[in-house]
Each structure stands twice: as C-alpha cells, then as structure tokens.
Specification:
This protein has 244 residues and is an alpha/beta fold. It is built from six helices and eleven strands. Helix 3 (129-155) crosses helix 4.
Length: 244
C-alpha cells in the first residue's frame, strides 16, 4: 500500500452558534495528550490544540461539544486576570497555565503540564502564590532586559549606569540623563521582540536624548522590528496591565 501523507490542518475552523459563527484557530502540538480548547491571555481569539494523531473531523467535533462553554467564557471574560491557580498568563508571548505544586520548598519554574501545555509551577501556600509569581516575573524581566540592553549598548559604544525594574503605568521604559534605565516588568509578558524593541528604544536615548529622526533611525538600526513593535504595543500593551 503506498504511503499517504496526512492532510494538513487548516489555520482555523468556524463553529456556528445560535447567534453567530465563532472562529477558532487550530494549533497542532505533538506533545499534547488530548484536545484542548482555550482562550489565550493576549485576547487573540480561541485556540484549539490538536494532539499528535488528531485530525480535523475530531477537532471540529470537540469544538462543537464545547462551544457552549466557549461562548460563555467569551461573554463573561474579565478585564483583570489574577495570579491564581488555573489561570492563564503570557510569558514571553506564550500562554502558561499557573500550577501550584503544593510543596513548601523550591522556586517558581517554567515547564509543561501533563497535557503538554506550557505551565508555571509555583511552590508554597496558595495565598503566597501571587507574591511569589510576581517576584519571579520581575526577576525574569530584569534578566531579559539587562541582556538585551547590554547588547544594544555595546553596538553604539555606550555604558548603562544602572537598570531598574518597576511597574509603571504610563510608559514601558525611560532613560535618565545620567545613563540610568528603567523598565516595566510587564514587558516579560510580551513576545521577546517587543521587549527587545523597548530595550533598544531606551538605549538609543543614551545617544539621542530626544525623539528626532536621528533617534528613530538609530532605534530602527538597533531593532529593525521597531515599526511593528510600536503597533503591537499600541494595540496590545494595555492588556499587559490586566495581569496580577
């Protein structure tokens, strides 16, 4: 019998409801053990994970069986997502389920749950979970931003006097005249290229303390994704303040 390739999955399916059609993106995941329907934290729309060996017919059947739950979640979705067991938050642009380990010892770690979904494992009592996870995210942000800022500073021959992590509401980063940089820890929730752009933006101010054409040319030289990243932050940045 000749070998036959499995028909590739489409990018999305649409499931009819009583009032409208719901568009659901399909995402094949060979690590997944089962079908999983979820709402990404970045509000990009429903996603159905298809496990290894899955197919379109079973994906559609699973979606129809759970469409009532999905519609209810879409209607009742809160604007704020607390750091609690079972909630989903983005880390470096990828959704992670918060999973308390129950153990009193250990540190927060990123990994995968039993069904293959990305997860953040948090030890300790559940009432300490928000604080522990926030602190871990702040340190992850400090590590990522320090790395990217140092890379960009070396490109233009500048030195960073100090780098701090805050929870600012009005700006993603700042650069003082004395060379001190400050960033929002919530940038670690965004895709890496967004964090990289903000790091490049503030480093560029070490040379151009303005927003002139020279500044933007330098910024785009350091981070070619600057135009797209600015659009992303304008459209999605406010959502990052809804976590924690």
């Amino acid at each position: 019998m000749p070998f036959r390739l499995r028909k590739p999955l489409p990018n999305h399916i649409e499931i009819e409801t009583e009032t409208d059609a719901v568009r659901i993106r399909l995402k094949a995941n060979p690590r997944a053990q089962r079908y999983l329907l979820r709402l990404p934290a970045d509000r990009s729309g429903p996603v159905l994970t298809v496990p290894k060996g899955g197919n379109l017919a079973r994906a559609e059947r699973f979606a129809r069986q759970n469409i009532g739950w999905l519609v209810a979640r879409l209607q009742d979705r809160p604007d704020h997502i607390a750091f609690m067991s079972g909630e989903t938050i983005p880390l470096r642009g990828e959704d992670h389920i918060i999973v308390p380990t129950g153990g009193l010892r250990g540190v927060v770690s990123a990994g995968h749950s039993d069904d293959g979904s990305p997860a953040l494992f948090v030890p300790g009592a559940e009432d300490h979970l928000p604080r522990k996870l926030t602190n871990w995210l702040k340190e992850a942000a400090r590590k990522d931003l320090t790395e990217r800022a140092d890379v960009h500073a070396k490109k233009i021959g500048k030195k960073i006097a100090a780098l701090s992590i805050r929870d600012t509401k009005s700006r993603w980063g700042s650069c003082a005249s004395n060379g001190r940089l400050s960033f929002s820890w919530r940038l670690v929730l965004a895709p890496p290229e967004i964090l990289d752009y903000v790091a490049a933006h503030e480093v560029a101010h070490l040379q151009e303390m303005n927003h002139s054409d020279r500044f933007w040319n330098l910024c785009e030289k350091l981070a070619p994704q600057t135009p797209q990243a600015r659009i992303w932050l304008k459209e999605n940045g406010a959502h990052l303040h809804g976590f924690g």
